[in-house]
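does this look right to u?? zinc ion version
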Amino acid sequence: MKSKVKCILSLFLVIGFLGINLEAVAKKHKSSKNAKGNGIIDYSKYGRKGAKARKAWLKYPEKKYDPNTKVYCDALFMRVHEENCPMLILKDRKKTMTLEQADKEGWRIGESGQSGRGRCCFKGYRRKYPEKEITDDMVGVVQPMKNGRYKWHVPGCHRFVMKPEHKVMTLGEARKLPGFYICPHCVERGPGAAIVDVEALRKRPTPPKFTPPAGWVPKPFSPDQLPPKKEIEILIQETLSTNYGILETPFKNPVASLEQFMMMRFFFPVGQWLTYYQAYRATGDKRLLEALRVSARHYHKLCVEYPDAAQLKARDPEGLAFMYSMAVSARITLQLARKYPDQVSKEEVAEAESFLKAIVATLKRTCEGNDNLDPEMGIPKPLADDFRTRAFNRASNGIATIAMASAALADLQKLKNTTEYQATIDRYRKCVQEWYKNWKKIGCLYTEADGKTYFYYPYSPREKLKVTKEGFKIGGADDIGHYSIAMQGIVLVHDATPELGADDKFLTAVANAVYYAAGTKYGSIQCPSADRVKPLNRHPRNSKPKTQFYMFEAFREGVIDAWCQKYSKTQKNELLSSHTARLKTLYAQYLKALRKDRSLIHLGETW
Ligand SMILES: [Zn+2]
Ligand SMILES: [Zn+2]
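got this back:
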């Protein structure tokens, strides 16, 4: 009986309690609905990641803004920014309006980044009116896809590089194309505001077309013996026909192109520039050096005409890689000028010097100065902090750009018999050295019982690997894809400044790890002992061929064969016959020769 009363009593208590709670929940729900702007925006239409990023903005406490606050309108996408927004460039060339008007017209407020997932300003502002959506009368670009379908983009979308053959048309017109669809990133980012300058696009230098010689059948190259001269010429022509690696679309309003430049990541151009670079080192053909100069001239012009934008882009190692082809082409030119003065003209030297001067000016704020040095690294604090946080694969090619620039500046000093750039060179060298030191500290260099050393590391410097009692580290070894991107940068540092952290010994440790991972189940790149404890770390291997690793054949014999072991004989033959595989195999021959003679500029010198 007593227990029954107790039971009823507690039931009342629970109901009472729930009642209050439900009310609180309802209140909370209402307020969060208000926070979303009275349910004005349905974020779920922006996909999982897009919705997640936007919902996170609601965590900024609501802040009242004067409706008459002045906003600056982007030229590329319908976005507006606050006066003091860190992402705002070329302020004096932008249209302005009031916050109220921008909201009414549906402009995205305080959004930045490739898909608009970044919140740069107006944090805590809650929209009053809906965002403007893409409509059928809007003009965009159609990308023909490999599967035969057509994808419509807002001009300036980061998901594709616009070429003269791409058609400009309205969304309504595009709907009539077979298999038509809209790019989901464009839906998320919203309408554009820029007009493509088709004329300027057509005027851009275009790579020569490659026509395979009649009856030619590509065959694999050997990692030890030179292919016939005829085959090398074909390889050069194939390489020249790829693309120059210029990312931005020309728009009628140049501010729009600059905004696109600020937003884009340079992964694709860097891969393309590496292709030219490796082909040059493997052959010594000056047409390849000239191909590198096409993008170098483009980005040099940008640095000179818009120094503020260039400096903002170059504020971290990932962004500064846009100057990669400037550094690399200057380095090759000046190396040639010192070793073979009659092979290089005065104009070529002057151009290389102008590229380097632009790099020095652009990197001044990022790398130089003594006002705010990191006590541990002895380089500017923001850069040191970046070294401690940015994923290694994202930083590696920028570090390579700094290393290349420092070596090229040293060449320039010797040519001109001055010490004008010494302080800059010293600081660049310090930056490269500190990045490598940190990479090795977070990662692991472990020598196994057989005397071979292996190098591996986690994706991000923020990850902490566990140290075993044997002394090797486990957990979080990087996956094949990201490891290979990080290693693209390493060969440039090995060429330019091996003494700063990428010497033969270190590259041998990389080659050992790469060789071993080729045969493991998941392909996590680490030492054999770590693989026995934790074979799968980040992403498991996929079926894509890994030609990026072939160059390490120069440091560990059998790397190429090892990365073909999962293919049949026919598949292997086909794979090794591809343009990339032939190129990377020949480049491995250059690296082998470079190990014997550090003064070697290209493999052609040995023929
Ligand atoms: Zn902003
Ligand atoms: Zn798109």
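The first strand starts at residue 70 and ends at 73. idk if thats expected tbh
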